[in-house]
TrEMBL record:
Keywords: Disulfide bond, Glycoprotein, Hydrolase, Lipid metabolism, Lysosome, Secreted, Signal, Sphingolipid metabolism. Its EC number is 3.5.1.23. GO terms for biological process: fatty acid metabolic process; sphingolipid metabolic process. Pathway: Sphingolipid metabolism; Lipid metabolism; sphingolipid metabolism. Its main location: other. It is found in: Lysosome; Secreted. It comes from Adineta steineri. One of its GO terms (cellular component) is membrane. This is Acid ceramidase. The active site is at 132 (nucleophile). Residues 132-314 form the Choloylglycine hydrolase/NAAA C-terminal domain.
Length: 363
């Protein structure tokens, strides 16, 4: 295999969190769920390189921010002070970030007409909130497939009519694919939200792929952000910017694993990485300071890796156990039947598929 092809679909469903499915009939996906692809030219000055995307999506970004502020003020009045922090403290972050990120954020603010504090809030929200399921499998021939569901907006306002989370509905139109280019060539690709400069899903074509899952921990992203704002500790990286740094600098699977295993982070997380050779698959369970667990393919004949938002070596919470059904489903399908179609069907099954999921596959 000399390249990694990427196919993306948005899957929409109204799930019952207590249901268990192992579907076999979700492939092929509906063509209307394809998402658009754009180019970020790294040879363009950082202040300008997001102009095209942001101009197209500025009204949707504005809608997300307006809804989030409205929800905070009306649902959690005690946290209204966060709106003040958004406008007074968050703009200062731009000048403390390593380049090109500060300039990119300022450029997005200028192109959209949205305040810098709000744009930074939009870009750091993943440090503290999201739900995901990531899977890496290896078939009987050693071929690697990497897939994920990205769930965002849970618990932030319920639409009783459509039976869905309101913020999820606001975010859905912002999902895009981005080709980052330099000297006219694609350096790496990401699946993200328009105007979001970090990466939660990415590929280095022909070399490796990466997905990011939130890891819940008391020493979490809120603490890291406070430390950064008040300059208690800026010798750490935002988890999504660490992925973008890695995609920029790492040339192979081993370098990617090495980098993300050791870099200090603002928030705990799970990095799921796959390569293009047999056995190249890993879940790196990160605290903010170090790796607390590293699980790899082929250890004890392990031919798949599954990660949700809880430590995979511990008992899963009964209210949100996606790991056990995913394991049961993939074991039912079996290694000999592991392929693009079967993994898509698995990630389309409840409870792995939540209120909104972007199914992304790397082959």
């Amino acid at each position: 295999m000399n390249k990694i092809d990427i196919t993306i679909w948005i899957l929409l469903i109204i799930p019952n969190i207590y249901a268990y499915q192992c579907l076999t009939d979700q492939w092929p996906p509906k063509s209307k769920s394809n998402i658009p692809t754009y180019v970020i030219d790294l040879d363009t000055p950082p202040l300008q390189r997001w102009n095209q995307i942001v101009t197209l999506y500025k009204s949707q970004i504005r809608d997300v921010l307006d809804y989030t502020k409205h929800f905070i003020v009306n649902t959690w009045p005690v946290f209204t002070f966060l709106i003040d922090i958004m406008h007074t403290k968050l703009p200062l972050i731009a000048d403390t970030l390593p380049e090109p990120y500060g300039q990119e954020l300022k450029g997005i603010s200028q192109a959209s007409g949205i305040s810098l504090g709000e744009i930074i809030f939009y870009n750091i929200f993943y440090e503290i909130s999201s739900l995901c399921t990531s899977i890496v499998t290896q078939d009987q021939n050693g071929y690697i497939i990497h897939g994920r569901n990205l769930d965002f907006g849970l618990l932030l306002g319920w639409d009783k009519v459509n039976k869905s989370w309101i913020l999820t509905n606001e975010l859905r139109p912002l999902v895009i694919a981005i080709n980052y280019t330099k000297n006219g060539e694609i350096r790496f690709q990401t699946i993200s939200f328009a105007g979001f400069i970090g990466a939660v899903t990415g590929i280095k074509p022909g070399r490796f792929s990466i997905t990011l899952n939130t890891r819940f921990d008391l020493n979490g992203g809120y603490i890291g952000i406070i430390e950064w704002i008040y300059n208690f500790d800026r010798q750490q990286s935002f988890v999504t910017l660490a992925i973008r740094d890695m995609l920029t600098g790492a040339e192979n699977y081993d370098e990617a694993v090495e980098y993300l295993s050791k870099i200090p982070l603002l928030a705990p997380c799970y990095y799921i990485i796959s390569g293009i050779k047999p056995g190249q698959g890993v879940i790196i369970s990160r605290s903010r300071q170090t790796s607390v667990n590293i699980k790899t393919l082929n250890t004890n004949n392990q031919w798949y890796l599954i990660q949700t938002n809880y430590d995979n070596w511990r008992k899963q919470p009964s209210i949100d156990d996606r790991l056990t059904p995913a394991i049961q489903c993939i074991e039912t399908k079996g290694k000999n039947n592991t392929n693009f179609e079967s993994l898509f069907n698995l990630l389309s099954s409840q409870p792995m598929l939540n209120k909104v999921a972007i199914c992304v596959f790397f082959q």
